[in-house]
Amino acid sequence: MRIRIAAVFLKRFLGLWLLGFLLMSLPVFWNRAYAQGADADKAVTIQWGVKIPLRDGVKLNATLYRPQEGKEPLPAIFTLTPYIADTYHERGIYFARNGYVFLGIDVRGRGNSEGAFEPFANEGRDGHDVVEWLAKQPWCSGKVTMWGGSYAGFDQWTVLKEFPPHLATIVPAAAAHPGTDFPFNNNVYAPYDIQWITYTSGVTPNTKLFGEASYWLDKFSQMYSKHIPFKELDVLVGNPSPVFQKWLSHPTPDAYYDAMVPTEQDYKRISVPILTITGHYDGDQPGAMTYYRRHLLYGSKEAIDNHYLIIGPWDHAGTRTPNRDVGGLHFGEASLVDLNKLHKEWYDWTMKSGKKPEFLKSRVAYYVVGPGAENWKYADNLEAISNGKILLYLHSNWPANDVFSSGTLAPEKPAKEKPDKYTYDPLDTRPAEVERAAGENSLTDQRAALNLFGNGLVYHSAPFGEPTEISGNLKLVCWMSMDVPDTDFQVAVSEIMPDGTSISLTQDLIRSRYRDSLRDEKLAKPGEINRYEFKSFMWFSRRVSKGSRLRLVLSSPNSMALEKNYNSGGIVAEESGKDSRTAHITVYHDPEHPSFLEIPVVK
To answer: Which strands form 274-281's sheet, in the order they lie side by side?
Structure first.
């Protein structure tokens, strides 16, 4: 229950787009009720305290699950987790009852494993050694695979890049990608980082402390309202953390994060079949899709042909345990895919010469939500899904600072038009009151759009003349200038239905200094007009209703749930209220600066 409380808190203050990579697949809540199935009466043998030696002498602790009947060696599945092996008990029972050996294994430094835990740093090499040790055991057929999502999804990719000979396949769900969606999103950190670090500090889970939502809200609120530097947050919450400080010392996707994930050459070598799973509202979707797209970019044709992708209407937890209700939306019955069964069928196909899972009718399966839709569709690749684009240009009669006096999104290119302006004052704490009032229905809540306090611009499209499927990643090109050297920008796009209901579709975030490259900063010059390309929107698929409009809100984030940019141009994590500079933002839409939104549609 406490984990659920924490999840609700995060949905309120972080939004679903950020929630996923932060929660890091907390399995205590999400892993329940999966021991059932057609073979629920089959007996299982469990061995606790299995010690797995690593190359440096450290031993990892595992809980081993095996079918009680049958003596023949079987393929082995394992999960490598910082959340303690016991939290995967139901999965172990399920797979052991369905013809597999399963091991829940504590990562080094957690649970009953030896060594010191540094998140994301050691799992690749350690996982390689686990695979090869398992392959030699008399109860293993020599074929080994992995199970899990989020942190355990990352594990699968980082182990794969070490190329253990007996790793037969991987099925990464909601896989976090260091340097992409962890520990920051587009180089913007979140206070939740220290909450997660606290949960995984020591050797056993600090579940009650993690779930004390009022405590974390109080501390995040203190940092926000008192304008304390983000770098001091670990001390403020009572857990001075070398890990937290090390992450802050690497504010861009540099060699530290690169060492944790496959390189271009690694992708070229990959040959095992892969099933990638993510969701429209999975906060680790950017990570999962980065692995997927890089493999398709660099991999061999044979390997690409054996890489399948599923994108469901799920949040982060739903990529393992689907739920029809997410953030105030209710999805169709078809969205409830039995992912345990699908994993078993995939393992049967790739390790036991079974049939390909019937669900995988093509290499990409995606779910379309919305009235008149709610069904699975298929394509050979992501690019084949949308066969058209709509360009909507930003226009206004100025100003466009309010939902009720907004600018427009229209297909006509802009003529000579007056630019729009908004103001972001980092010392303005009124947005915190809006955040506190937010409910669980994060995908239908309009409070943020209705309470911009002058910090933002709003644009609406004309009503759609017919139902239209939008499937893919949006792109926004926006020409802007400002009078400060740096600030952050966020964009939210929603469907506004004929009855006024708002449905959040997708979001994106840019720190100005990284507008051209996430690895190299370039501060802005006062008054200089720069091109910003928002190209990391979350992928989604929705059938927009006839009569609905699109709403685009562009603002600068001023939230308890994000590292605050005080606009000084210094090291953001070290900035405080004394460094604050009010940003005056100008958005251009004229023939020389045609700001536009690009929308992929299925005709």
So the answer is: 274-281, 307-315, 364-368, 375-379
CB 538 within 8 A of CB 445: no
Residues of the chain below pLDDT 70: 1-40
Parallel/antiparallel/unpaired status of strands 420-424 and 188-189 = unpaired
Class of domain 2-181+254-384: alpha beta
Q: Residue 39 has what pLDDT? A: 63
Say if CB 82 and CB 117 are below 8 A apart.
Answer: yes
Dihedral sign from CA coordinates of 534, 538, 544, 549: negative
Strands 274-281 and 307-315 come out as: parallel
pLDDT in tens, 108-157: 999 999 999 999 999 999 999 999 999 999 999 999 999 999 999 999 99
**pLDDT value of position 463:** 98
Question: Is this structure's pTM higher than 0.70?
Answer: yes
DSSP 532: E
For domain 388-602, is the CATH number 3.30.450.30?
Answer: no
- Cβ(164)–Cβ(123) below 8 Å: no
What residue spans in the chain does CATH classification 2.60.120.260 cover? 388-602
Bridge partners, residue 460, by sequence: 408, 551
